[in-house]
Amino acid sequence: MLDFFLLRRQRHQKKMMKYMRYVLNDHFVLVCLFLAGGLAFYYSNLLNQLSPDFPWSLPIVGIIWWVILPLGKLATLVEPADMAFLLPKEKEMGGYLSRGLRHSLAWPFSIELFVCGALLPLIVLAKQISFMNFFFFVVMLWSLKLANLRIQRFACYQTTQKQTQRLMILWFISSGGIIFSSLYSFAWLGTILAFVTAFGFVFLTQEQERLLDWSKMIDQENTRLHRIYQFINLFTDVPEIEAKVHRRKYLDGLLAKISFRQENTFLYLFARGALRGAVFGGLFFRLLIVGAILVLSLTDSRFIAGVSALFIYLIGFQMIPLYSQFDYIGAAQLYPVLKKYKKAALQRLMTLLLFSAALIFSLCSLLHLSIFESLGLFGLLLVEIGLFAWFYLPARIKKMED
């Protein structure tokens, strides 16, 4: 079963690497670097402004650590057909699940390492301790996460639902107590308590000749993979996710404003796809909401302008595939509509969507900026929209058609 899991993992990683080529494209990496640099600069300035007696440093760190601990699910890589074909090997599935648990450690361990390193300056500022305590904190978080994944492994067996719920509650409460104990006393104390807790949950989650709950295990793995595919679907089409269409009758008034003329054929199709399609409509509203929340949370005009411009670009860039959304429909190929009208339709729709986003970001900026500064921000975003719609977008369309 060890070789079987390695084969499954290799196939899964190969598929993920294929999708990562589309996710980690040049534009997205550049945007992430820009955003990370801006946040790091903002965070550095914030640390310089905080006084050592700031009372909320340790509570903020403790709550963030406590919240990120449940992140990361057990990756079993099981498939629906396993319920029948692997049933004779059920007694050997314990080793298979243990390999899955070790495979599942990489992602949460990386997140905890990064978050712990990012928040360590707050702890040093509040307690005046050495940066060497970082290793104690990281090992503590890793031990607690190991206990969490051990409970998830135990949940794969039959007649464990109530016991799993009690263990999860006990784990969550004990994890919070250990985290805050290490922050308010000694870092090494939290590490020791986390080790004891991990060993305790390993002992409490012995399967004891239980049978696997195949249906539950397969459903949990499908749910885990679906979340991954939903994220990837923001960047490229994923066959594993079926596109859904929502009626959204309350938006029909917007579509009614498009006159029924030949040159508006693709404008109507693009607008309907953007408003009713779960992919593009959901993508637009999610980025719009996240961008608005970030603008509301920032106080520096430079960061507000940078984040607003960044999200205008992200919205526009992620909506570009709408251009080829209807190419699979034979009728769209037979329409007597010139290609220039198709390109112009996407430009008009993109301009309207980005204009509405720019207006919302400018209104959100009024919370911290003056009216004149918000008007300046709106003007800056309009310039960006013009450059994007009339220079960048035609170049991308030409590249797609070549």
Unreliably modeled segments: none
Q: What is the percent of helical residues?
A: over 70%
Overall tally of domains:
2
Helix- and strand-based class?
Answer: mainly alpha
Element pattern in H and E: HHHHHHHHHHHHHHHHH
Head-to-tail CA distance between termini:
47 Å
Number of strands: 0
Proportion of beta-strand residues: under 5%
Report Rg. Answer: 26 Å
Number of helices: 17
Q: Kindly report the average pLDDT value.
A: 85
Shape: flat
* Biggest beta sheet summary: none
Features:
402 residues; mainly alpha; 17 helices; 74% helix
What does this structure look like?
It comes from Enterococcus dongliensis. Keywords: Membrane, Transmembrane, Transmembrane helix. This is ABC transporter permease. Helices cover 74% and strands 0% of the residues. With 402 residues, it is an all-alpha fold. It has two domains: 2-232, no CATH class; 249-401, no CATH class. It is flat, with a radius of gyration of 26 Å.
